[in-house]
TrEMBL record:
Residues 159-597 form the Topo IA-type catalytic domain. Its EC number is 5.6.2.1. Pfam families: Topoisom_bac, Toprim, Toprim_Crpt. InterPro entries: Topo_IA, Topo_IA_2, Topo_IA_AS, Topo_IA_cen, Topo_IA_cen_sub1, Topo_IA_cen_sub2, Topo_IA_cen_sub3, Topo_IA_core_domain. It comes from the Bacteria. It catalyses: ATP-independent breakage of single-stranded DNA, followed by passage and rejoining. This is DNA topoisomerase. The keyword Iron-sulfur does not apply. Keywords: DNA-binding, Isomerase, Magnesium, Metal-binding, Topoisomerase. Belongs to the type IA topoisomerase family.
Amino acid sequence: MANVVILAEKPSQAKAYAEAFKVQEKTKTHIRLQPDDTFPDGATITWGVGHLVELKEPHDYKPEWKKWKLEQLPIVPERFLEKVAKGKWEQFQAVKKLFQQADVIVNGADVDREGSNIFYSILQLTGVKGKPVQRLWINSLEKDEVRKGFKALQNNKKDLLLFDEAKARQISDWMVGINASRLFTLHLQKKGYGSYLTIGRVQSPTVYLIYQRHKEIENFKPEPFYQIEGLFNSQAGTYKGLAEIKEKDKAKVQAVLDKHQLKEKEAYTGSVDRIDKKTKRQKSPKLHSLSTLQSVANRRWKYSPSHVLKTMQKLYEKRLVSYPRTDCNFITNSEFSYLVNNLEKYKQAMNVSFTPASLKPNKRYVNGSKVQEHYAIIPTKSVPTQKKLEGLSRDERNIYEEVMATTLAMFHKDYVYEETTIFTHVHDLPFKSTGKRDVDRGWKELFPKPKKEKETDLPGVQKGEQVGAKLHIKESMTQPPKPYTEGQLINMMKTCGKLVDDEADVEILKEVEGLGTEATRSSIIETIKKQKYIEVKKNTVSITAKGIMLCETIEGTLLSSPAMTAKWESYLKKIGSGDGSKQLFIKQTRQFIEKLIQEAPEAIQQVNVKTTGEGPKKKWNEPVAKCPACSNGSIIDRYKFYACSGYKEGCKVTFPKRLAGKSLTPNMIKTLCEKKRTKVLKGFKGKKPFSTALTLDEEYKITFDFAKKS
């Protein structure tokens, strides 16, 4: 009898797998399936809770690595080890026990390198060895797709290579983050900087690109430019046109008027010299990848990229859309076939009616050679009822309808419009007027009409027609580049090769699609927001004083270079395809850090701490209050926690920086040390948000006091 154990990435994924079969038993840690033709002896599904295990922190290797000291760098353990993540011990033990009992283990985590990392990291920490491992590889959580996937399990050869790639990335990011953050922070603090910097392989060049846009806007000097505009009055209506001259020097524009014996604001007669009409067609947009969906949703509804990914994940788990973390805009003939079969149902669900232009696959959308791990985001075979659609949240419905409309547009007619150009001559000076008129909205009928989309139809003038004309010199100002929106950040990260001069670097950035991956870009943006390097207000991204400090600090180093990150990403892909070495990559990361350690003192010399507007702040190792336990010590801010300065003399008093989801400020700690009690504080998080006073007990531990009234 074969005991099959399946590891899902999270409980919701395990539940979706289980619903494709008959369930025998459900427990807190696993689900047992009844025997059937897929699993003749039944199977057990268990799960991680995201990352059940994580890389150990510096102090887990050596206690002295907890303190930030320049002389300890570089911090590189001989072997990188993992530990069970905080609060996840019980589930880890359950998974370990099931793995020990298994005859066959199936990796059912997400089908990407992070899913491979999660599975094999857990497997390695359980110590279970020598058991056959198979890989579930699916793009949808629909029941028939899940059953089909389990019947066609793959070997783990590709999975192991993806694990090596993911582990190389995870370890190198750990090394860069730990060492570079300490290195630059400690050098800056010598110059009086009162805060700390966190530095990352991908997040730092991302902040630097935002900083470059900030500098472009800051250094931009608007300049006037001049054109000649004509207002023309025909029998069919008025229209405007521009002469083909655009100059910074107004005198040059005036000279053109003088040459043609024309004056501003005087009445002239013009003649319609030529009318060009062209009918143009526009094909429907390509199918969505995650990043195109994030860009559209941000433009249309101001949703942040991370909110789009979370919403897509919910729709995926409700079996309404295919796998969300895809960078592909194509589907294969297999997906196209089921879309054709369900076309009428999709139209009913969206309450639209149109005759399909074609039911044959078009290479613009259907191209199996362009599909690797995942195909484009499309609706699944599960067509929602009106009741199910009404049960979706507003954001889920908006995103679902965007995916559905983009998919249906593939079957619709082209958008057809007519572009008209009129050339009007006044005293032999030609003026050009352009207009646009819809002929057939085609696929555009499926989408809400954008507010900014206006028809600029021109009046129906005749060739040779005489028209009234008044001219003036139009003054305009050059405009600075606009700050990025949050949606544009995704595109900026993806296409940052356009901002790089070196041709070889441009090619690498193109090959790896810029900074980060489809699955990680939104979390990188969230990280730099959380680190307070950028602010987003009304969807506009601006860099903060802390972000400017980071960029001035890393300027000129490889940490500010998108190309460096791209070269790393390019080599990581080689590891994933079996053409690169994890060990070599980690060795080169160490060499990179050693080079940074040598370069940092000189780089920091150029930085003026006060230029950020932050100025020297209270250092995080300065006293907050007198220690309530010992007479000599003071409670000081130790960056991640508060502690007594007399710890070497044996005083063990410490206080956390965060408690139940709320930050504890130095003032709160001071009040606790002096008065043993705070007022009622809001903003604590449990199953529901709550308010409570804090008290200091006899053992100098912080406790909640719900009895105290505000």
